[in-house]
Amino acid sequence: MKEQAYIGNKGNHWFGIRRVGGVWYNLNSTNIVPPGPQFITDSYLNMFLLSLEGQGFTVWTLRGG
Questions:
Q1: CB of 7 within 8 A of CB of 59?
Q2: What are phi and psi of 60, to 5 degrees?
Q3: pLDDT for 40-53, tens place per residue?
Q4: Which of 20, 31, 47, 64 has the fewest CB atoms within 10 Å distance of its CB?
Q5: Is-contact 10 55, C-beta < 8 A?
Q6: Is the entire prediction scored with pTM above 0.70?
Q7: What residues pair up with 15 in beta bridges, in sequence order?
Q8: For 5-24, what is each residue's pLDDT tens digit?
């Protein structure tokens, strides 16, 4: 997988979903439970991205080499 990160946007709210050391993290500053970065499994990532789009977010993909 060449995807390195995703950026979500809805209105004035922007946040990142970033892979660090092979592990995905939801870096949304509005995360409440638990607060801070949230771990996302590889199997849940696609469902999470589809959920964001369903909530009206635009999602951009960032790819690296």
A1: yes
A2: -105, 145
A3: 999 999 999 999 99
A4: 64
A5: yes
A6: yes
A7: 8
A8: 999 999 999 999 999 998 99
Tokens standing for 14? Answer: 């922007």
The dihedral over CA atoms of 55, 17, 24, 43, expressed in degrees to the nearest 10, equals 20
d(CA 18, CA 39): 10
DSSP 34-52: TTS-EEE-HHHHHHHHHHH
What per-residue confidence (pLDDT) applies to 1? 57
Distance CA 45, CA 42 (A): 5
User: Token pair for residue 10?
Assistant: 């809805």
Res 27 pLDDT > 90: yes
- How much is the pLDDT for 47? 96
